[in-house]
Design brief:
The chain is an alpha/beta fold. Helix content is 22%, strand content 25%.
Length: 666
Amino acid sequence: MRYQIYISVLPLMFCAVAGAATPTKGSTAVVGVMETTDLHSNVLGYDYFKLAPEPSLGLDRTAALIAQARQQFPNNLLFDNGDTIQGSALADYQALANPLKCDQTLAIYKVMNKLGYDGGGIGNHEFNYGLAYLSQVTGNRFEVDGVDAARPRCAGPAFPQVLANVYSLKTRQPLFAPYRIIDKQITALDADGKPLTVTLKVGIIGFAPPTILSWDKRSLEGKVYTEGLRETATRFIPEMRAQGADLVVAISHGGLDDITYQPSMENGNWHLSKVPGIDAMLIGHSHLPFPNASSTVPQFNLPGVDKVKGLVNGVPTVMANLWGKHLGVIGLHLSYDGQRWVVDRSQTTVEARAAQQADKSFIAPDPAIAALVAGEHEATIGYVKTPVGATDFRMSTYFADVGDVTAIAVVNLAQADYVSRYVKANLPQYAALPVLSMASPFKGGTAGVTDYTDVKAGSLALNNAADLYLYPNSLYAVKVNGGELKAWLEHAAGRFNTIDPELTTPQELVNTAFPTYNFDAMTTKEVSYEIDVTKVPGQRIKNLRFRDKAVTASNEFLVATNNYRASGGGGFPGLDGSKTAVAAPDANRDVLIGYIKEVKNLTRAENGQQRSWRFAKVRTAGPVVFHSAPGLLALAQRAGLANVSQLRADDGMGKGFALYAVDLSK
């Protein structure tokens, strides 16, 4: 099948730029290609959960990095990698609480327009609010079931957005333009070193993780389908070259994985880099900076990945972390061979530039950004202050890795209560099954020392509920047997490194490559189990008991969770969508808010201390250590963690964390 590029692309591809010359053989040029990724609508350096400024994040600070890079690279392009429109209270306010009108532009896009973005990709979280909303805010007309293709085109970003591997089932055509070719006027030097103005045709092609079909099954099933990165790129890149693209930049929302290629794989960019014709890759999704010479993350230590120079199978590649904390900058050195521009990879540079400076301070934000979105910002603050209840205890994730369940226990209570009622009202065939619930600590320090859930004792408002449940997931429940429940917990226990009891040197407890949000746990007196961190992953769950009896394969349960997990998110064995028993019409966060409103006053005894799991007791010759915010030992003790101690208020790694130890023998 031949895919046609939309007519709106053609003027960009074929128009001539006034005053541009034809490059001559031996001409050279340097072009800075900049990337933001996983901004998650963090427009300003502000934490709506804590209702306080937060200097470590925000596109307003990235704006200053962009200005610096443009000074260094007068020839420059600025692209966004996706996961842009969801992820903050501001995003929820504009999507859910006070839905954006057709003639209004999203706050994040208003800022991007001002910053002069040249193009953008689409991530998986763009689909969280549904196709109708995505169609509206991106200024597109999607021809898919459930979206009125005849409605007026709404306001969207002023730059092209591309996505090549997501298709409408109705039309069998890409949902967005699969690629665009941008005419960029740059200054080059001819063979004699004289400046000349030339037109560089830059082709951009976008990819999203094919796994969106599982993660947002409820809103995408029967409406769109996906194709794998490799076959999509193989189809379109020759077409881009034939249309005159001098450079091809792949904007691919995913990380790196060298497992055997599958069209459905989540992080297919290692394989994408091997498709001929790609000059640079902008990647994301993994919430990490790349290149990073000191990284121990497995995906940056694969064959063919140069984590120092920022190359993936020879292709210059950058990932700009998340939330505006970094700016990706590729300095492409080009030479003209008489027929085409060629990237000189020996001189090309790749950096993930941090907003945090060498002295640990943060670059000053661009004040014009705050002025641009002042109305949306103030409205969001008013929205998140809406009261919902109260708590007599502090709910946090500072010590979630060692057993503090205060921030997930109330989530589990709310989810289990909802599913129990739902089954009673709608699904009598499941009435005899015990209802359990799984929740995870969404924030565990991955993005810095302030990246923890922390809800103080006192009144509770919507911002606190959003802190406890970060994502706009839908509540699902799955039917599993005892063996499948144990396998679920085994996978979650991958959060920990394998500890050698005989080692006298300090050992790190937490496997930082394992996301916090995949550390699922139950918090009920009906279930108990141990995690033996001296065993290899897959052999760690011991003494799994339900109502004081050993759990066996003959046991069956309904387990409350979310659509992401039930549909395969996180790669948990057996959770692939086939076990879904309840696909509730309500979001997990709304379920939590409703529960708090009904209970009114949360107490530690009833809502915050029931812990199902413990570490299996073992005496170690040396300390087992982990990192968290300093000075919070009393918080661990109030959560009943008498086996935790603070070794140093500063762990010496320069990021503000303290070094703690956990005594596994207690």
